[in-house]
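Input C-alpha cells:
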C-alpha cells in the first residue's frame, strides 16, 4: 500500500498536484480554460466598442528569462522561475486562443476563407498543450536539462499506431524498408494515452514468381511482402545497464504522471580516441553514468520540432570512480 494521498476526485491514483492526480489535474485545467474562453468570447459576439477592447491581449511581451544555477539551492530557485515563466506563457496563449476563436467565428459568419485562421488557432492550441505539459513536469519536481541524444525505450500515444503492408518487386532487404522505423509519439495532452514499446511487431517474406510466362512479360522474379503491425513487438524493455530498483521505481512514477511524450536513457559518450584506447586497455573499465530522461515534444511543424528534456533518474556506481 502506498502511503501517498489519493486523488480527491477519482480516489484511485496518487495525488500529483493540488490534491489531484495527473489525469484529473489535466482535465480540470483544460475544463477551466474552455470555460474561460467561452465566457470571454461571448461578449465579443454580442457587443462592440469598449467591451471588445478590454478583451484584447495586453501589448506587453513576455520578459526574457535566463535560468542559471550553480548549486542545489539555485537549482530550486531556477525551477520556480521556470514555473512562473511557463504560467505567464500559458496566460498569454489563452488570450491568443480567445482572439483566434473570435476571428474564426467572424470569418465563418461572413462566409470568408478560414484555412489560415484555423491553422493559426490550431498552432496556438498545440503551443498551449506543449507548455502545459512542461508546467506539469516542473510542478512534479523534475529538473530541466539540455537536450541530449537518448535511446528511447517508451513512447506515449493516445491514438493507435497504424499498420502498414506493402509488396515490393524483387528481393528487398528488410533494413531498406519501413520496418526499422520506430513508433513516434503523437504528442497527446498530459494524462492521455499509454506508454508502449517503440518497436512495432513486423514480418517479411520473399516468394519467387513462378507464374508461366512471367519472364517473357518482364515481370519481377521475386516478390517481397513486408508487414508492420500496430501492436508493439513486446512489453516495454527497460535498459539493462541502468536497471536498478530505485531507478525503475522513479521511471514507473513518471509514467503514471503521463506528462512525458517519450522516455529514454542517455548513454555515456567517450570524449576522444585517447580515452577510448585507455578504457579498452583497462581490465576493469567503468561502464559510465547513464541518465534516464523524459522528453516533452511539440507537434512537428515542417522539419522543426521543439523538445524539452527533464531528468527522471541518474545512476552512478561510486565503486567504479
Amino acid at each position: 500500500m502506498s502511503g501517498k494521498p489519493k486523488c480527491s476526485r477519482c480516489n484511485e491514483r496518487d495525488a500529483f498536484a493540488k490534491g489531484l492526480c495527473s489525469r484529473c489535474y489535466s482535465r480540470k485545467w483544460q475544463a477551466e480554460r474552455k470555460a474561460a474562453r467561452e465566457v470571454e468570447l461571448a461578449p465579443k459576439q454580442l457587443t462592440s466598442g469598449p467591451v471588445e477592447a478590454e478583451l484584447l491581449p495586453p501589448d506587453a511581451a513576455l520578459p526574457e528569462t535566463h535560468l542559471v544555477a550553480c548549486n542545489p539551492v539555485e537549482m530550486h530557485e531556477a525551477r520556480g522561475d521556470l514555473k512562473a515563466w511557463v504560467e505567464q506563457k500559458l496566460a498569454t496563449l489563452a488570450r491568443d486562443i480567445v482572439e483566434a476563436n473570435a476571428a474564426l467565428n467572424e470569418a465563418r459568419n461572413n462566409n470568408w476563407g478560414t484555412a489560415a485562421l484555423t491553422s493559426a488557432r490550431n498552432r496556438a492550441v498545440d503551443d498551449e498543450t506543449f507548455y502545459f505539459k512542461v508546467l506539469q513536469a516542473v510542478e512534479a519536481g523534475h529538473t530541466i536539462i539540455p537536450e541530449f541524444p537518448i535511446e528511447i525505450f517508451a513512447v506515449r500515444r493516445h491514438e493507435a499506431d497504424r499498420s502498414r503492408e506493402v509488396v515490393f518487386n524483387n528481393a528487398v532487404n528488410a533494413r531498406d524498408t519501413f520496418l526499422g522505423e520506430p513508433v513516434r509519439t503523437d504528442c497527446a495532452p498530459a494524462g492521455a494515452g499509454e506508454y508502449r514499446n517503440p518497436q512495432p511487431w513486423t514480418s517479411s517474406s520473399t516468394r519467387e514468381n513462378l507464374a508461366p510466362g512471367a519472364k517473357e512479360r518482364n515481370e519481377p522474379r521475386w516478390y517481397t511482402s513486408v508487414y508492420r503491425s500496430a501492436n508493439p513487438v513486446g512489453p516495454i524493455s527497460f535498459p539493462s545497464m541502468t536497471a536498478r530498483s530505485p531507478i525503475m521505481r522513479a521511471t514507473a512514477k513518471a509514467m503514471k504522471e503521463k506528462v512525458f511524450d517519450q522516455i529514454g536513457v542517455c548513454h555515456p559518450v567517450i570524449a576522444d580516441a585517447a580515452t577510448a584506447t585507455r578504457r579498452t586497455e583497462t581490465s576493469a573499465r567503468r561502464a559510465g553514468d547513464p541518465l534516464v530522461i523524459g522528453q516533452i515534444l511539440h507537434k512537428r511543424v515542417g522539419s522543426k520540432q521543439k523538445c524539452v528534456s527533464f531528468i527522471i533518474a541518474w545512476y552512478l556506481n561510486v565503486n567504479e570512480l
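The longest strand covers residues 222-232. The CA atoms of residues 29 and 132 lie 9 Å apart.
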